[in-house]
Design goal:
26% helix, Alpha-Beta Plaits, elongated, q64v53_bacfr protein fold, 4-stranded antiparallel β-sheet, 181 residues, 9 strands, 5-stranded antiparallel β-sheet, alpha+beta
Length: 181
C-alpha cells in the first residue's frame, strides 16, 4: 500500500492505493474524513499501480511523508489479569486499525501487555500502539474507538513525535497528568 500526503492550509490531504482481488483501489480525502474510493478493474501489478499514483499526484504536491513527520500514540487500558485482557486485544486492534485507516490517519503497529510503573503504584495495562500523521485527530479517533468498541471505563492516551522518547498525556479518565508507558 502506498500513502501520499500534502498540506493544504491547516489540513492534510491523503491519497493511498492498494489492490484487492484484481481491482485497484484508490482512497483519497482529508485526514480525519472518510474520503472517496475509486476502483480500477483488472489491476494486478501493485508496483505499476503505485507508480501511476505517484506520477499523478506528485505534481500536486503529494509525497510520502518521512517518519519524522509522524507521531506515536499509545492507548493504555488497565486490565485485572492477562487472561481477562486477551479477549480485548484482537477486536480492539481491528477496530482501531479500521478507524484510523479509513480516515487517512495511519495504522496500528501492535500491542503489548505488562506492568506500568507509576508514582501511585504499578498497574497491569494493555498498550495499543498507533503510528499516525496528525496527533490531535489520531488521539480523538482512538478515544472514540475505545468508547464505542469496548466496555472499558478507564484509559490513558499519550502521544509523542516519532523521533522522540517522552510521551505527553492527551487524556486520562483517571485524571493523570503524566503518561507512563
Amino acid at each position: 500500500m502506498l500513502k501520499l500526503y500534502r498540506h493544504i492550509g491547516d489540513s492534510i490531504e491523503y491519497v493511498e492505493c492498494w489492490i484487492n482481488d484484481g481491482v485497484g483501489v484508490k482512497h483519497a480525502g482529508v485526514v480525519g474524513d472518510r474520503g472517496e474510493i475509486t476502483n480500477t478493474p483488472n489491476t494486478t501489478d501493485l508496483k505499476a499501480y503505485e507508480n501511476a499514483l505517484r506520477e499523478e499526484y506528485a505534481p500536486q504536491g503529494y509525497t510520502e511523508w518521512p517518519k519524522s513527520l509522524h507521531y506515536w500514540i499509545v492507548a493504555q487500558i488497565p486490565v485485572e489479569t492477562i487472561e481477562k485482557g486477551r479477549p480485548l486485544i484482537q477486536p480492539m486492534l481491528d477496530a482501531l486499525n479500521n478507524d484510523l485507516g479509513w480516515i487517512g490517519l495511519g495504522h496500528m503497529d501492535g500491542y503489548d501487555i505488562g506492568w506500568s510503573f507509576r508514582p501511585e503504584g504499578k498497574e497491569l495495562v494493555l498498550n495499543f500502539f498507533a503510528e499516525v500523521v496528525e496527533k490531535d485527530i489520531g488521539c480523538a479517533t482512538i478515544r472514540q474507538t475505545i468508547i464505542n468498541k469496548s466496555e472499558q471505563e478507564h484509559y490513558d492516551i499519550g502521544y509523542r513525535p516519532f523521533d522522540e522518547d517522552e510521551y505527553t498525556m492527551y487524556e486520562s479518565t483517571k485524571g493523570r497528568k503524566d503518561f507512563w508507558p
